[in-house]
């Protein structure tokens, strides 16, 4: 263990962003011949909050379990501060772990749970008690030391689990969907707490989640996974604004995907309908995949758009019919049917026209994300929901795919 | 835990349910939940248990009362029951070493068998609980319950063949030069214990398997992530959490081992000093029914005392673990 004994105290350790901390190279893992993990390279920086985000079955838990030592990789290696961890058993890795179902020892008190790792390390009694109290204070539960886990609420149990993992002062804390069993309100509170704790202790946290909002709000960087691969690694704003692949665009922020043939004047033919893409020009006749965020889509009533109806910077791009609309509280959600099998989702503050009415839609030139002309291997799937289900197949037959895991967007 | 869920288990006649509920679950409020359930369902709630109650009354309670009545009769010189009541048969059970020593011997053997069953059953249950669904698991399971699927005669003669003077065990021991001549294994205490443990093992393994299978794998992972190696994890997490299974196994094996007599009779002969065999010989060769009745009832009381002592012990241990 390399962590500073004072790390759990008041002084926040300044993260040194450039230091390589955990390096994952060519890591492959699989069960019974099926490859579920295939990560070319992923390096985790000291003191950062890294989320591993992806749908279920994307390999994110397998990646975490490989880091923890529960899964033996079939290839590649993991190093922590230059030390090869591949053959080191879990109990000698010195990493902290927090589980989705808390995994507190039911036959021990809260204090004994937190003291478990210290007892293993033969920390003498006085120091042990001190560190137990200190860890429980970090999560605001020092008055519950004598309780049993089952006497605590879910949120409290997860706080104890965090305290237990932190008591041994690990260099890295791995969290496997730790908030997924909590209700929405508690989840938001715990998010803030977790982030504060991470910043205060300067500890490296690797956080596995399928919840994009959670990943966006917590992380320094996000590794978006699909089909066992890291599709994109970047800050929350990067993965949101410049998604590297169609999958990332759809999974994070549920972007509208427009797939069609481009023209030199910037128009795009989708499902037989000609749309103005908003881009100055597109390669003539080449297949093009564009993404537009629903909240960037502006709607105006009527099929013949009035330019004045669109705010400055955006312009009408086409028209369609309102297929569905719903009020979600903070905004309206509408689906605009552009052509047979082509629909756009929009989130607007103004009430959209009624279902069945003609509507024109538009966006600004900066709102269009070009996903590259070759990113259309999922053609035919219109919904983002499908992406996760396809993940397994993709991992298998895309071995020679040029969609390299860290590729920058074509734009 | 909702009240209706406990109602069938906590029914007034279900003795074992009540007992194991207290020992294994350690759930507080089990009793009160049962009470409210009874109140809510009233007389109609008792309807489903009526056949069991009738069955138990006719075939268990009535004969037991008659055995008790029989045990209070003095006998004449030929062992015929006489009129009148006395505790003379019980005095014989406690003063004649032929009976009293058999009781202690039975108690000691039953405790030994219980301990051996838990110790030997634990690894088997562990393997069974970790085995994936499939052929291996099925084979393991069949192997574990095979003593129950075999007739007592076949099973016991299997042991006889194995342990006889020219049986496999003796031949191996002599062949290895460990013995000069075949040992008399068959009537030995060793063989009695081995064969009784063999029959009783499934009763220990099955509840242990359930208990071990119910332990969340993440608890072991958490232990390892906190720096505990496999051995420490086993003793600090797996064993304490399997305690309910150990308790059920022990409280089933112990009373069964207290009363066992056919298996020891077949492999060890009629002279094994076990209380069950003494009862058997009093009935089949001495024809002294009253003393046989007194001995069986004493054995029954001793068994019940042993079971409640075990139960108390486990409950105490459980409470220390789970608060």
UniProtKB/TrEMBL annotation, chain A:
Signal peptide: none annotated. Gene3D superfamilies: 2.40.50.100, P-loop containing nucleotide triphosphate hydrolases. GO terms for molecular function: ABC-type quaternary ammonium compound transporting activity; ATP binding; ATP hydrolysis activity. It is an enzyme of class 7 (translocase). Keywords: ATP-binding, Nucleotide-binding, Transport. One of its GO terms (cellular component) is ATP-binding cassette (ABC) transporter complex. It comes from the Bacteria. InterPro entries: AAA+_ATPase (IPR003593), ABC_SmlMolc_Importer (IPR050093), ABC_transporter-like_ATP-bd (IPR003439), ABC_transporter-like_CS (IPR017871), Mo/tungstate-bd_C_term_dom (IPR008995), P-loop_NTPase (IPR027417), Transp-assoc_OB_typ2 (IPR013611). Residues 22-252 form the ABC transporter domain. Its EC number is 7.6.2.9. Pfam families: ABC_tran, TOBE_2. PROSITE patterns: ABC_TRANSPORTER_1, ABC_TRANSPORTER_2. Residues 374-400 have a biased composition (Acidic residues). Residues 368-411 are annotated as: Disordered. This is ABC-type quaternary amine transporter. It comes from Streptomyces corynorhini.
TrEMBL record, chain B:
Residues 12-21 have a biased composition (Basic and acidic residues). Residues 1-34 are annotated as: Disordered. GO terms for cellular component: plasma membrane. It is a multi-pass membrane protein. It is found in: Cell membrane. It holds the Pfam family BPD_transp_1. CDD domains: TM_PBP2. One of its GO terms (biological process) is transmembrane transport. Residues 103-310 form the ABC transmembrane type-1 domain. The keyword Ribonucleoprotein does not apply. Keywords: Cell membrane, Membrane, Transmembrane, Transmembrane helix, Transport. The chain crosses the membrane at residues 45-69, 102-127, 139-165, 185-213, 234-262, 291-317. Gene3D superfamilies: MetI-like (1.10.3720.10). Belongs to the binding-protein-dependent transport system permease family. CysTW subfamily. This is ABC transporter permease.
């Amino acid at each position: 263990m390399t962590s500073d004994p004072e790390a759990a105290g008041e002084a926040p350790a300044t993260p040194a962003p450039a230091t390589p901390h955990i390096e994952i190279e060519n890591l492959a893992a699989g069960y019974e011949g099926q490859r579920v993990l295939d990560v070319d390279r992923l390096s985790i920086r000291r003191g950062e909050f890294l989320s591993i985000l992806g749908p279920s079955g994307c390999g994110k838990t397998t990646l975490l379990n490989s880091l923890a030592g529960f899964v033996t990789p079939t290839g590649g290696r993991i190093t922590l501060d230059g030390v090869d961890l591949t053959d080191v058993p879990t109990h000698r890795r010195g990493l902290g772990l927090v589980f989705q179902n808390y995994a507190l020892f039911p036959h021990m008190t809260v204090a004994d749970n937190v003291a478990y790792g210290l007892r293993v390390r033969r920390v003498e009694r006085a120091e042990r008690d001190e560190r137990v109290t200190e860890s429980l204070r970090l999560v605001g539960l020092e008055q519950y030391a004598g309780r049993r886990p089952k006497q605590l609420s879910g949120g409290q149990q997860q706080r104890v689990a965090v305290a237990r993992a932190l008591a041994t002062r690990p260099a890295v804390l791995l969290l496997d969907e730790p908030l997924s069993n909590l209700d929405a309100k508690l989840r938001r509170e715990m998010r803030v707490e977790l982030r504060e704790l991470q910043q205060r202790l300067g500890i490296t946290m690797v956080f596995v989640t399928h919840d994009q909002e959670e990943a966006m709000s917590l992380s320094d960087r996000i590794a978006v996974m699909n089909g066992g691969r890291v599709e994109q690694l970047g800050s929350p704003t990067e993965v949101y604004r410049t998604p590297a692949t169609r999958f990332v665009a759809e999974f994070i922020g549920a972007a509208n995907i427009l797939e069609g043939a481009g023209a030199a004047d910037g128009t795009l033919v989708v499902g037989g309908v000609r749309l103005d893409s908003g881009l100055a020009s597109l390669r003539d006749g080449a297949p093009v995949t564009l993404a537009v965020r629903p909240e960037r889509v502006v709607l105006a009533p009527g099929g013949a758009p009035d330019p004045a109806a669109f705010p400055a910077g955006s312009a009408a791009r086409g028209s369609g019919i309102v297929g569905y609309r719903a009020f979600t509280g903070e905004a309206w959600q509408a689906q605009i049917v552009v052509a047979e099998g082509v629909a756009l989702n929009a989130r607007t503050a103004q009430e959209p026209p009624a279902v069945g009415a003609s509507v024109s839609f538009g966006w600004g030139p900066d709102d269009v994300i070009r996903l590259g002309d070759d990113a259309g291997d999922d053609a035919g799937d219109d919904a983002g929901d499908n992406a996760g289900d396809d993940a397994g197949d993709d991992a298998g037959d895309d071995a020679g795919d040029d969609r390299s895991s860290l590729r920058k967007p074509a734009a | 835990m909702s009240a209706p869920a406990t109602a069938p288990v906590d029914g007034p006649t279900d003795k074992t349910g009540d007992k194991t509920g207290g020992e294994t679950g350690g759930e507080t409020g089990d009793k009160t939940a049962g009470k409210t359930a009874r109140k809510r369902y009233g007389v109609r709630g008792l309807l489903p248990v009526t056949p069991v109650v009738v069955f138990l009354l006719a075939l268990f309670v009535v004969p037991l009362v008659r055995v008790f009545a029989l045990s209070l009769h003095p006998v004449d010189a030929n062992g015929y029951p006489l009129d009148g009541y006395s505790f003379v048969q019980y005095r014989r059970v406690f003063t004649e070493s032929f009976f009293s020593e058999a009781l202690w011997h039975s108690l000691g053997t039953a405790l030994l068998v219980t301990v051996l069953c838990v110790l030997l059953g634990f690894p088997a249950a562990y393997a069974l609980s970790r085995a994936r669904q499939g052929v291996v698991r099925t084979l393991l399971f069949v192997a574990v319950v095979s003593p129950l699927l075999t007739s007592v005669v076949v099973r016991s003669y299997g042991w006889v063949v194995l342990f006889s003077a020219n049986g496999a065990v003796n031949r191996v021991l002599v062949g290895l030069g460990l013995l000069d001549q075949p040992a008399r294994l068959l009537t030995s205490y060793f063989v009695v214990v081995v064969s009784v443990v063999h029959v009783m093992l499934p009763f220990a393994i099955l509840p242990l398997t359930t208990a071990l299978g119910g332990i969340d794998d993440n608890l072991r992972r958490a232990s390892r992530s906190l720096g505990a190696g496999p051995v420490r994890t086993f003793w600090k997490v797996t064993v304490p959490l399997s305690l309910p299974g150990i308790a059920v196994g022990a409280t089933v094996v112990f009373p069964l081992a207290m009363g066992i007599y056919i298996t020891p009779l077949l492999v060890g002969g009629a002279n094994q000093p076990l209380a069950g065999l003494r009862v058997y010989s009093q009935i089949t060769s001495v024809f002294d029914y009253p003393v046989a009745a007194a001995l069986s009832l004493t054995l029954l009381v001793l068994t019940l005392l042993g079971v409640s002592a075990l139960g108390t012990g486990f409950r105490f241990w459980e409470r220390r673990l789970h608060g």
